[in-house]
Specification:
Layout: H1 4-32, H2 38-91
């Protein structure tokens, strides 16, 4: 359980950091490209936002798949280990 106050604080700091970074970069891009870089930066921000949103939506499913694969691999290793022990006991 995470404290709601802590969650709000982390969210505010994250959003404030991203906004501050964008506020600092935008004028530099505008001056450096004589205004032509604004739409490019905006499009890159949009693509990044969509990509991160999709990643946030897909990540739980990927984690479940990875967990199932790890459990299957572990079960297979345990079965092999038990089979080799049984073979060793039978041959002895």
């Amino acid at each position: 359980d995470v404290s709601p106050g802590l969650a709000i604080l982390v969210g505010l700091l994250t959003a404030g950091g991203v906004h501050s970074l964008r506020a600092m970069v935008r004028p530099v891009v505008t001056v450096a490209t004589m205004g032509l870089g604004g739409p490019v930066v905006s499009a890159a921000e949009d693509v990044g936002a969509v990509g991160l949103t999709l990643l946030a939506l897909i990540a739980p499913f990927v984690a479940i798949v990875v967990l199932v694969v790890l459990v299957a691999v572990a079960a297979r290793l345990v079965v092999r280990k038990l089979a080799s022990r049984r073979a060793t006991l039978r041959s002895a």
